Amino acid sequence: MTCPQPADLEAIQGLVYTSWNDHRYAGFLFATMGSDARASRAWLGDLRRDISPVTHRGHQLRGRLQVALTPSGLRALGVPDDVIGMMPAEALGGMASRRQSLGDTDPTGWQLGGRHSRLDVLVMVYACDPESRARRLAEQRAALCAAGAAVLPDELGWPLGPREHFGFADGLSQPYLPGLHAAPRRGQDTVAAGEILLGYPNAYDQLPMSPVWADFDLGRNGTYLVFRKLSQDVAGLWGWIAGHARRLAGGDPIAAAELTELLGAKLMGRWRSGAPITLTPDRDDPAYATIDRVNAFKYLAHDPDGLRCPISAHVRRANPRDARGGSAASSETVVNRHRILRRGRSFGPPLPYDAAVAGRDDGNPRGLYFISLQSSIARGFEFIQQSWLANPGFAGLHLEPDPIIGNPSGPRHLSIPAQPIRLRLSDVPTVVTNLGGDYFFLPSLPALARIAAGP
Amino acid sequence: MRDATQALTVLAALDPSPGKRALLEQRLAAIAADLDGNPLFRPAQLPDTHFMRFVIIDDPRRELPSLLAWETNHDGRTAAYLAAVARAAPAIGVVFECCADYPAAGIADLDGWIAWMQARAYPAGAFYIAYRGVPRREILNDRRVHEAIREIVDHDDRARVCRLPRGELQRRICEQLKARHPELELSPTGDDEARWVIGKIVAALLAIAALPIVVLLALPWYAMLRYKETTEFSTFYARPAPIDPAVRDAEDRATQNQLTHVVDIKPGRFRLATLWLVLQAIDVVARVYAVRGDLGGITTIHFARWVILRDRRRGVRRRHRLVFFSNYDGSWESYLGEFIDRAAYGLTAVWSNTVGFPPTEHLVCAGARHEEQFKQWTREHQIATQVFWTGAAGSTVQNIRDDLWIRRNLDRGLGDDEVVRWLGKL
């Protein structure tokens, strides 16, 4: 089978096909299991019955639960080492071990995971109101504690809104994963099911490596989940943009305000509404932000030199579409071998645009719980982060890491192609910082049952 | 050919006497820890060198002696280069003196030293250069030219500059450059177009001359190949191959990275001969076709070489090895991905002749397209590089090619379209 069948959809955790956007309140619990594997398995056996598969869709008052485990979590639950050892090297090493490749800060100071705190379990709660979220989190915390686990403080998402904290519409170009919906949307790329889910042929028409326990394939219908708690300095970003806009506008406040919007869109590759700058280069036009038009563009065809959307723009780097070298078709084939599903949520209150542009921070922590799903973390999340975003030499650029994600080492320029000559800004600030996270395995429901059954 | 960059690979057996190996490891670690400031040997003193590395090659089966490999990519002829190295960087002796049979007088006896080095120099089976024919001093000069132009443009009054006609804008930049940077070489030099055209004609003639032999041998060779492909062993990885922490730590560090890979060639003359032929073909491609930074769609390799390491022992079953040295841009994952996505035919043709490679069909098919298996196989045979030095840190292949193009077209009276392109590359 090249893609999930109805029976598989009963087995796959719902998060693979939905962000649970009809549940606006998300909460995340991280725990380290205790030493009593039997008690831990009993906890998992109970929890498993509450995990929503793909087929349980729609709004549920009690909320939705999903669960992911790290290799150390699997070990604590009694999965043998030689089974866990069939997972890819980066999943086994964990996010902190990949610090150099990801350009992260020193993991000793992370709020989640890192050098000194082992993360075993991630319980994700999606609820329709803050009360039921609090209730469910408390229940889950109590159940974990009863099984002997140590649980970190609740990580609470901000109620889901249309924009991420920098003010841009987000999550617009997710690839289409076959199996549930009949067809992709206009401009939406289709990925092989095996790019996201284990147990299916991937973009190379190969079955990804999978942990097999005796005769049971633990990997099948599961995926790997990357969780990162990213802090966003919203005033830092917009204050910096507005400063350059004022300088370039030469004292005209209206021109400066327009230029701030334009430079922000050049940095991101989309206007704040989500309208692609490739299609509407001069002004934000929400008519291009509709579900049918928001992805209906290419770079090589519409904008090979980046005169509309700079080569360095965040969305162009994160998904270079037809412009990653060679012909359009070969570029798209290659690019579609590095696609992920994003399931992130924001945390902390938004900062009003006026305050951000004035560079006035209110001191509240805010950012993004970045969550991605892929069958290979190395070829999915890590590749995009490292080879496209943080890479200062991406696509012929020189000393130019992604202006949003950045790269802590070395000088950071940003060039914006223009006629007759480009504009280059040379003091790009660091506006996103990783506060911690880890690499998890998001098992299927039968795999959870198998793990709970024990050796 | 004039000024072409050469591949020198010196492979010297380590001195087996006690303590020598530890001393070598200690010295290489000290050099690597501070390439530009260590008291032993500073690679930056090497003349006309683009990239170099030191690697200790051990035999995992402990049948063959351990070797010290010095991989260097240098301008000019090898003998002249070694003489220049002895003059400019005699401290390199602290590394080689840990090898067996090192001359007692060391570098002081220049001819003896050069002869010792050359006796241990192995030819590259295939050698690829992203900027063939371009000496290092030109690369550094052109990088400074581009840097200086960026400075000028960044500090110009943008509103005023944008009103100038494009040709005028380029002229202004050139004038400022000449006025501010008299030390830079700005005179236009052409590309070696004629050289590549002649090379292509020669290659085509050789191919035609070889045709009768090829036709004669093709069928029996192919039958033998298919038989081997169905019977030879491939490693299957159900779990990730273990990675040497030293390999992992040295990876994904900077713009430029390195890979050293050593694997046994499949036993028997058939595979050795096939491999030799494939490498010859790749070498021809690299010499006359892929001369401008694009090797079959891969644009991130600065220098790469394959070296066949013949086993000269007698009375035992010989184990010839294939050593691969690559100097590339970006991460390991992206490099391997480019390999598979863009050059799977070529590298399958090479490595299918080595032990454990994923199953192959018709020499060039399947093989590396077993993406995950190929990556694990590469991991299994990749070894740690003790010292890696680059002479153009921070520049990607494409950066270097852009620098060259910008300087070469600085003062050439470009047409309107070309001026647009020139300004666009700044």
In a nutshell, what does this entry contain?
With 455 residues, chain A is α+β, with helices and mostly antiparallel strands.
Q: Explain this structure to me?
A:
The complex is a heterodimer of chains A (455) and B (426). In chain A, strands 1, 2, 3, 4 and 5 form a five-stranded antiparallel sheet that branches. Chain A has helices at residues 6-11, 37-48, 71-76, 81-84, 89-93, 99-102, 130-146, 234-249, 253-268, 314-318, 328-335, 353-357, 378-389, 445-453, and strands spanning 25-32, 64-69, 121-127, 150-151, 155-156, 212-213, 216-217, 223-232, 341-342, 345-347, 367-374, 414-416, 423-425, 432-442. In chain A, α2 runs antiparallel to α7 (130-146), α2 packs antiparallel against α14 (445-453) and α8 crosses α9. The model of chain A has no long low-confidence stretch (mean pLDDT 95). The longest helix of chain A has 17 residues, at 130-146. Chain A is α+β, with helices and mostly antiparallel strands and 455 residues long. By secondary structure, chain B is α+β, with helices and mostly antiparallel strands. Chain B folds into three domains: 6-119, Alpha-Beta Plaits, CATH 3.30.70; 126-133 and 192-390, no CATH class; 136-190 and 396-424, no CATH class. Chain B contains 14 helices and twelve strands. Chain B has helices spanning 20-33, 78-88, 93-96, 110-119, 136-155, 158-161, 166-180, 193-231, 245-249, 269-289, 332-351, 371-381, 397-408, 416-425, and strands spanning 5-13, 49-57, 67-75, 121-122, 126-129, 256-264, 301-309, 321-329, 360-361, 365-366, 382-383, 387-390. In chain B, strands 4-1-3-2-12 form a five-stranded antiparallel sheet. Chains A and B meet through α11 and α13 of A and α5, α6, α11, α12 and α13 of B.
